[in-house]
Specification:
This protein is mainly alpha-helical. 75% of the residues lie in helices and 4% in strands. The chain has helices at residues 3-26, 31-58, 93-116, 123-142, 146-164, 171-202, 207-213, 218-235, 244-250, 253-278, 284-307, 312-336, 343-377, 393-407, 413-428, 430-455, 470-488, 490-506, 509-517, and strands at 64-76, 82-91.
Length: 519
């Protein structure tokens, strides 16, 4: 094991965090120097995430612990285990998987931003906030401590609100930023109250220590309810989704892609709480069906609201909301069946987790495409577009591939993960699979209509900016290749990265606890 892979968990947080504070200083040397600096930060961070994933998946997804500040001071427990007194990062298959998602979305969004932000002012602050958001997301995924999870959650909230309301000359951006700030504050408050209750009840903050001591009493159940509500709100699950369409719609296009990873980090936190922190100390079946209820609402509302949108970014935003439902559905089916552990429960988990990276790729691609076509057309209104395929051939192809993947059309990646969800959900209840399939068909119709409005028709009278520049096309092409590769070879990726992530939640609670406490 190399020194880089050993220290990768903390470097994934520290490098973009230090980069965020250094960007305003580096920016004084000129735009070109700043862009090179930010690009190197993004590339090195992505390489670290890949190196960490290779190490973790090479060990079958087994949990590893990184201690900040030296060896942990341990307090002996009556059981023979020890309670850790240090700031700890704990990385297993699920954490490493989420790190890959964050790295993929971040590096493509930053690369796209170099051309997208070229003629705009405020680039130093923009990249600083983007790197700060990246550091917060990695922190949420790597930490093994509930209070530090809350701290990183708040870091992402501050950075995301700044990016959403960044374009202060647009009234809608400021309104969206204020709405997101309000709801993120409520979400963070719920998480903080839950952390306080758990600390008061059990005298610790480490996830493994808390998981070992939870009894499923009244305080524990109240804390679970607060965490479930707060993290589902931050993830954008219906009926707490009202911030998401405004945030995705009004943020700069590459920022919208990173906000998807931010939402998924909150979803990861929810899954970590349900499977690792609480496990079966509460009624897993009941909690699983609550997740399934959230999932069906999220899928249905997201798709039906997308039907009536004329703004291309808000249409994609509601599509992104609907996909959160599919992730919740897969993992909810797994949680509802975790006590009996039928084979289809693990399949459902694989589908829900696989859909996280598939969604990040295709939604990220669609947001980048939306940024390119709104730049060329000078509007986001589909009723005022048309004929863009004449001048934006590559971009139109990227849009079709992203839309088909999002709707679950084979052979693209969305079909591979959704098929696992359909199969497992059908075995639990055919009704669940029917709703999921019909919603995907409806979503396909929505995006076919959007493609017709934006790209088909006669050549526009004023051609506008024409095809997107190469600096925008390359990040879109990278995400397109990911969409195609994950769709053509799903078995390869499921076996190597998805299954270790799913098993880390499905079977890995005891291993996660023992990695910290021993015994």
């Amino acid at each position: 094991m190399s020194a880089l892979s050993v220290h990768a968990p903390v470097l994934l947080i520290a490098i973009p965090l230090l980069g965020a504070f250094a960007v305003p200083l580096i920016g004084k040397l000129g735009r070109g120097v700043r862009d090179v600096f930010v690009g190197l930060i993004a590339a090195f961070t992505a390489a670290l995430a890949g190196l960490l994933a290779a190490d973790v998946f090479g060990r079958g997804g087994a949990a590893s612990v990184y201690v900040l500040g030296g060896k942990p001071f341990n307090i002996p427990l009556p059981s023979g285990m020890t309670a850790p007194i240090r700031i700890l990062l704990e990385v297993d298959g699920m954490s490493a998987f989420m790190g890959l998602i964050t790295a993929l979305v971040t590096i493509t969004a930053i690369a796209f931003s170099f051309s997208y932000w070229k003629k705009r002012s405020g680039g130093n602050m923009y990249y600083s906030l983007l790197l700060l958001l990246t550091a917060g997301i990695f922190g949420m995924e790597m930490t093994g401590d509930m209070f530090n999870f809350f701290v990183f959650l708040e870091v992402t909230s501050i950075a995301a609100c700044g990016l959403i309301g960044f374009r202060v000359w647009l009234g809608r951006s400021q309104e969206a930023g204020f709405k997101v700030m309000t709801l993120y504050t409520v979400s963070g408050l719920f998480v903080l109250l839950a952390v306080g209750l758990l600390y008061g009840e059990h005298g610790g903050l480490n996830i493994a220590y808390l998981a070992h001591g939870l009894t499923g009493g009244l305080i524990d159940k109240i804390a679970l309810g607060l965490l479930l509500t707060g993290l589902a709100m931050k993830a954008g699950a219906v009926p707490m989704h009202m911030w998401a369409p405004d945030a995705y719609g009004e943020a700069p296009a590459p920022t919208s892609a990173v906000l998807v990873a931010n939402s998924q980090a909150s979803l990861y936190g929810l899954f970590r709480v349900l499977f690792t922190l609480f496990g079966i100390t509460v009624s897993a079946a009941t909690t699983g069906w609550i997740l399934i209820g959230f999932a069906l609402l999220t899928i249905f509302v997201g798709v039906t609201m997308a039907l009536v949108q004329n703004d291309i970014k808000r249409l994609i935003a509601y599509g992104a909301v609907s996909q959160i439902g599919y992730m919740l559905l897969g993992v909810g089916v797994g949680l509802a069946t975790i006590v009996a552990k039928p084979a289809y429960g693990l399949v459902a988990m694989q589908g829900g987790i696989f859909h996280m990276i598939n969604d990040a790729a295709c939604i990220g691609l669609l947001f980048l495409v939306a940024g390119a076509i709104s730049r060329a057309a000078g509007t986001r209104d589909l009723n005022k577009m048309g004929g863009l395929a004449h001048t934006m051939k590559y971009t139109s192809v990227f849009f079709v591939i992203g839309a088909f993947a999002l709707a679950g059309v084979p052979p693209f990646n969305g079909f591979a993960s959704k098929f696992l969800i359909y199969e497992a959900s059908f075995k639990l209840s055919p009704f669940l699979a029917i709703i999921a399939i019909l919603s995907s068909i409806l979503l396909l119709a929505v995006f076919v209509k959007a493609f017709q409005g934006a790209f088909l028709g006669p050549r526009p009278a004023s051609p506008g900016g024409g095809e997107a520049p190469l600096g925008m096309l390359i990040p879109m092409a990278v995400l397109t290749l990911v969409v195609i590769a994950f769709g053509l070879f799903p078995g390869f990726f499921v076996e190597r990265i998805v299954t270790p992530a799913a098993r880390a939640l499905w079977f890995g609670r005891d291993a996660y606890i023992s990695a910290i406490l021993g015994g």
